Amino acid sequence: MSHAAHNTLTWIFHGTRNYASTDKSLKDILSLIGLDPTSDGGKAAVTIGRAAARTAITKRADDGNNDFVDYVYGPPNPGVYQATPGGSPLPDTPQAQFVRLFASVGDVTQFSLPPPPDPTKAGYQDYLLYVKEQGQANSSVRTPYDTDTAYFWRESSPT
After folding, report:
1. Least CB-packed of 21, 49, 56, 109 within 10 Å?
2. What is the pTM of this model?
C-alpha cells in the first residue's frame, strides 16, 4: 500500500517540488512497518504496490484534471477574484469544477462551498483580518499544521 501511495502521489504531483518529502515519507513508513525492500517479501510488496499505482493512474488518465479552461476574470469589484500582482497570470486549477472524482462519488459540485463573505456586510473586516494574520510570512497565529497544509497545496498545484 505504501509503494502504491508513493508512486501515485509522485505521478499526480509531477512537476512539483514534493519528490523529496514523498520519498522521505515512504522511507519513514517502511522502517516503521519493518519492511525490508531487499527481502523476498519486500520485493513482492514493491511489485504489488507499483502495479496498484499503475492501475490507479491509468484509471485517472482521462479525469479532466489536465484539461485547459480559459478562465475569464469578473469585474474588479470587492469580493470578485482578481489576479494577484506579481503572481500567476491565471488562477490555479479552474478545471477542478469539471474533474471526474474517484470512486464514482458523483458530481464535484456536491462539494461546493458557500459563497465568500459579502464585503459590504458587517463582520467582513474580521474575515479579512483573519486571512491577513494567517498569511503573514512569519505569522504568530498560524499553526505548523496550517503551514504544512499551505505548502502541500502550493506544491501540488500546476502553477
Report:
1. 109
2. 0.52
